[in-house]
């Protein structure tokens, strides 16, 4: 349907001497000066406005990601949207798709877990009773460089003797390989044994079993593939474990013992800690004996046990065992008493 109007004279063309031909041409019979001016031709369809798709541009996606190809179409009535894939398959909003590809209600084509095989030209088709429009979108798929998902730098604190796990989760296409560099420069790969207690799991996590203060330092996880690399750096601080004496976690333990004159007595001071603590006994006469110590009458064994032979009255008093390492110290105070005979009360 065509409609002609003369500027500032709407409706004037309805008079005689005018004719609109079937092809839309305006015919003026016996044109005169009064016909001068601008004329507006308006074309309308009883079926509505044909679809129009806003211009698109090439799209690049990383392998493994979801690619979204928009198709913004206008028209009256609202056009139906479908997509023509590079392999000739046609997908519409009403179709379920192949499982990886589908059309959203707004006309966007989604392709999940794209690969290099999805590269090509995708054509959006918009249709309504008034006409059709199409738009070709080129999809380029590139390999995804390795990415470490955790934050790039992290500080971790632990206590000696703990088992520590340092995660390093990576992704990329192709699948990246992971290895760790220890503080001494040693490289460790998954399931490779370089020293006891150190292991890299297949998922990239580094395990430090029975960590010691000497394990403190920088640990670097490196993910590499043919497309690049990415890294994560841990700063590990392993604190010494304070010593315990005879299994007790106390700074000071007091106990009493008795012994018969001229007999032999053993007093245990079993100290444990990481790093191993140094053991020292302080005698009643304020003499310091560091384990191991071997005297003619008094012995301090490697395990911290104090041995006193031929006990005599001067052995009465406090015997103090001190266990010390970088994590602190523990003290055992033993008050010794002497019995004159085994059958006598002390």
UniProtKB/TrEMBL annotation:
Domain of life: Eukaryota
Transmembrane regions: none
Subcellular location: Membrane
Membrane topology: Single-pass membrane protein
GO CC entries: membrane
Pfam families documented for this protein: I-set, Ig_3
Alphabetical list of InterPro entries matching this protein: Ig-like_dom, Ig-like_dom_sf, Ig-like_fold, Ig_I-set, Ig_sub, Ig_sub2, LRFN
Keyword Cell inner membrane: no
Annotated Ig-like domain residues: 51-140, 146-237, 243-335
Keyword set, alphabetical order: Disulfide bond, Immunoglobulin domain, Leucine-rich repeat, Membrane, Repeat, Signal, Transmembrane, Transmembrane helix
Cited PANTHER family: IMMUNOGLOBULIN SUPERFAMILY MEMBER 10 (PTHR45842:SF2), SYNAPTIC ADHESION-LIKE MOLECULE SALM (PTHR45842)
Protein name: Immunoglobulin superfamily member 10
Species classification: Eukaryota, Metazoa, Chordata, Craniata, Vertebrata
């Amino acid at each position: 349907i065509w409609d002609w109007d003369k500027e500032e004279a709407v409706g004037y063309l309805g008079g005689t001497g005018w004719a609109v031909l079937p092809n839309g041409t305006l015919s003026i019979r016996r044109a005169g000066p009064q016909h001068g001016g601008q004329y507006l031709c308006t074309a309308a369809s009883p079926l509505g406005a044909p679809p129009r798709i806003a211009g698109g541009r090439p799209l690049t996606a990383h392998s493994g990601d979801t690619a979204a190809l928009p198709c913004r179409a206008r028209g009256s009535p609202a056009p139906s949207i479908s997509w023509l894939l590079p392999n000739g398959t046609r997908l519409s909003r009403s179709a379920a798709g192949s499982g990886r590809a589908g059309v959203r209600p707004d006309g966007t084509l989604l392709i999940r877990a794209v690969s290099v095989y999805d590269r090509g030209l995708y054509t959006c088709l918009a249709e309504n009773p008034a006409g059709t429009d199409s738009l070709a979108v080129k999809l380029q798929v590139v390999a995804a460089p390795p990415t470490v998902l955790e934050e790039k730098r992290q500080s971790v604190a632990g206590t000696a003797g703990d088992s520590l796990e340092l995660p390093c989760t990576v992704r990329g296409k192709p699948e990246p390989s992971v290895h760790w560099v220890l503080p001494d420069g040693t490289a460790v790969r998954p399931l490779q044994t370089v020293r006891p207690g150190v292991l890299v799991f297949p998922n990239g996590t580094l395990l430090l079993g029975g960590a010691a203060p000497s394990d403190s330092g920088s640990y670097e996880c490196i993910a590499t593939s043919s497309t690049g690399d990415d890294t994560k750096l841990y700063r590990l601080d392993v604190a010494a474990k304070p010593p315990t004496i005879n299994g007790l976690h106390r700074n000071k333990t007091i106990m009493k013992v008795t012994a018969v004159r001229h007999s032999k007595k053993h007093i245990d001071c079993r100290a444990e800690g990481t790093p191993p603590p140094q053991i020292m006994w302080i005698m009643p006469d304020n003499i310091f004996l560091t384990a191991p110590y071997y005297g003619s009458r008094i012995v301090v064994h490697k395990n911290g046990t104090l041995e006193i032979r031929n006990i005599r009255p001067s052995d009465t008093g406090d015997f103090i065992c001190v266990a010390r390492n970088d994590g602190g110290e523990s003290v055992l105070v033993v008050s010794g008493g002497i019995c004159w005979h085994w059958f006598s009360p002390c």
